UniProtKB/TrEMBL annotation:
Keywords: Signal. PANTHER family: DIHYDRO-HEME D1 DEHYDROGENASE (PTHR47197:SF3), PROTEIN NIRF (PTHR47197). It comes from Sphaerisporangium rubeum. This is YVTN family beta-propeller protein. Residues 83-374 form the YNCE-like beta-propeller domain.
Length: 392
C-alpha cells in the first residue's frame, strides 16, 4: 500500500580518528543552554508573519537547526539527570532502563498496553511513555528514573510538541487523527481528522510553522494549513511506499523521509513540499538520527540489519554499519557525546549499541519482547519537539 505524509502549518563517523557525529565542543557549545518559555520563539527561529507558507531559507544565510545539539550543550534543566536509556518493550508492556556505562538493565517496570515510544517533554522535565493500545501516557521522572501515575489519552502512538511549546501533538495512528492537547495535563483542545491512514512520525520546518508528518498506510504528501484548517497541497509518492521517520536537514532546506517499503529515504524540498529524489539505503529503512556535528544522518535499516550513514553534503550514503548475523535495528537515539548510537532491536529482544567512531556494533543488551522507540536521556538541546528525542 502507498503512504501519506502530512505537512501541517502551525502557529506560534566511521571514517577517521575523530567521530563525524561527535565533534569536539567549542567553549560556547559546552556551556549550558536554556529553553525559551512556552509560547515564545527560540532565538533565530521566529514564527514570522501569519500565513501558512512553508519555510524558506534565505539565500546565503548560514543555518544549522541542530546547532544547540552539540556535545556538552545540556540545558540546565537536565544537567543533573542521570544518563540512562529508556526502552519501551511493546510486546511485553514494560520499560527497561539501561545504564549506558555498564550496559546493564538497572530498572524494569510495567506500563500500559503496547508502549511504542519514550518521548521527552517540550520543557525537558518529563519522559512520556506512549501506551498505544492502553490509551495512556505513563510519565517518568528523569531525575529518578521512576514512573508516575498514567494519564488517559486516546491512541497515543507517538507524541510531538509545537516548537513554541504551546501544544502537545498526539499522533493517533489507529484513529487517523492529529490531536492537539495541553502539553502539561494533556487535556484535549481539538482533534483534526487526517486525510490519510497511519499518521506516526514528524519534524518541523526551520521557522517552526510547518510540520511534516508521515502516514504509513496510504499514499501522498499533503500540506495542511491549520489556520484554516484546510489541505493546501497533496503530492503522490511514487509506487508502493510506507514512510516512517522524518528529519529536517541541518540547513533547513530538505526533509528526509525514511521509506520502509522502498528501502531508502525520500528527499523533500521543505519550501515547495515537493519530492526531489529517492536515495536507497537498505531494506526496511526506518529511523533517522542526526550526528552531533550535523554532517551525517544515521538511517536504521530494520530489514537489512544495518545502519546507513548518509552525508548531508553529498546527499547519499557514504558508509554502512552491519550487524553480524543480521538484526532488526529500529528507533533510538545518539548519546550526548555523539559517540554511540542506541537502537532497539524490534524483533530480537535486544538493544544495539553502535560505535560512531569505528562504525561498528559494539554491544547488544537483552531486554523484553518487542523493544521499540527507546530514548537516550538526557541529550543536548534547549527544548524537545518529541518522538524519541528531536531537539532544537
Amino acid at each position: 500500500m502507498a503512504a501519506l505524509v502530512v505537512a501541517v502549518a502551525v502557529s506560534g563517523c566511521s571514517r577517521g580518528e575523530a567521530p563525524r557525529g561527535a565533534a569536539t565542543p567549542s567553549a560556547s557549545a559546552s556551556a549550558p543552554v536554556s529553553a525559551p518559555g512556552p509560547g515564545t520563539a527560540a532565538p533565530g527561529e521566529g514564527q514570522g508573519a501569519g500565513g501558512a507558507a512553508a519555510a524558506r531559507v534565505e539565500p546565503g544565510k548560514k543555518v544549522d537547526v541542530y546547532r544547540h545539539d552539540r556535545p556538552g550543550s545540556l540545558s540546565p534543566v537536565v544537567a543533573g539527570f542521570p544518563s540512562l536509556v529508556y526502552v519501551p518493550n511493546s510486546d511485553s508492556g514494560t520499560v527497561s532502563v539501561i545504564d549506558p556505562e555498564t550496559y546493564k538493565v538497572v530498572r524494569h517496570f510495567r506500563v500500559g498496553k503496547r508502549p511504542q515510544h519514550v518521548v521527552p517533554s517540550w520543557d525537558l522535565k518529563t519522559l512520556w511513555v506512549n501506551n498505544n493500545e492502553g490509551n495512556t501516557l505513563t510519565p517518568i521522572d528523569p531525575a529518578t528514573g521512576q514512573p508516575g501515575a498514567p494519564v488517559v489519552v486516546d491512541d497515543p502512538y507517538n507524541l510531538y510538541f509545537t516548537p513554541d511549546g504551546t501544544s502537545a501533538l498526539v499522533m493517533a495512528e489507529r484513529l487517523n487523527r492529529l490531536d492537539f492537547r495541553d502539553p502539561r495535563n494533556f487535556t484535549l483542545r481539538r482533534s483534526m481528522e487526517m486525510p490519510c491512514r497511519g499518521i506516526n512520525h514528524a519534524d518541523f520546518t526551520v521557522d517552526g510553522r510547518t510540520m511534516l508528518a508521515s502516514c504509513e498506510f496510504s499514499g501522498h504528501l499533503v500540506a495542511v494549513d491549520l489556520t484554516g484548517p484546510k489541505v493546501r497541497k497533496r503530492v503522490t509518492l511514487p509506487g508502493h511506499s510506507m514512510p516512517q521517520d522524518v528529519k529536517l536537514s541541518p540547513d533547513g532546506t530538505t526533509f528526509y523521509v525514511a521509506d520502509m517499503a522502498k528501502g531508502g529515504v525520500w528527499l523533500v524540498d521543505a519550501a515547495r513540499l515537493a519530492v526531489e529524489k529517492f536515495v536507497r539505503t537498505g531494506a526496511g529503512a526506518h529511523g533517522l538520527y542526526v550526528s552531533r556535528d550535523s554532517r551525517d544522518l544515521y538511517v536504521s535499516n530494520r530489514g537489512a540489519g544495518s545502519v546507513s550513514v548518509v552525508s548531508f553534503a553529498k546527499r547519499k550514503p557514504v558508509d554502512t554499519w552491519r550487524i553480524p548475523g543480521g538484526g532488526s535495528p529500529d528507533m533510538g537515539g545518539v548519546s550526548a557525546d555523539g559517540r554511540k548510537l542506541w537502537l532497539a532491536g524490534r524483533y530480537h529482544g535486544v538493544v544495539y549499541v553502535f560505535d560512531t567512531v569505528k562504525g561498528r556494533l559494539i554491544r547488544t543488551v537483552p531486554v523484553d519482547a518487542g523493544p521499540h522507540g527507546l530514548a537516550v536521556y538526557p541529550q543536548p538541546g534547549r527544548y524537545s519537539l518529541g518522538h524519541t528525542g528531536v531537539f532544537r
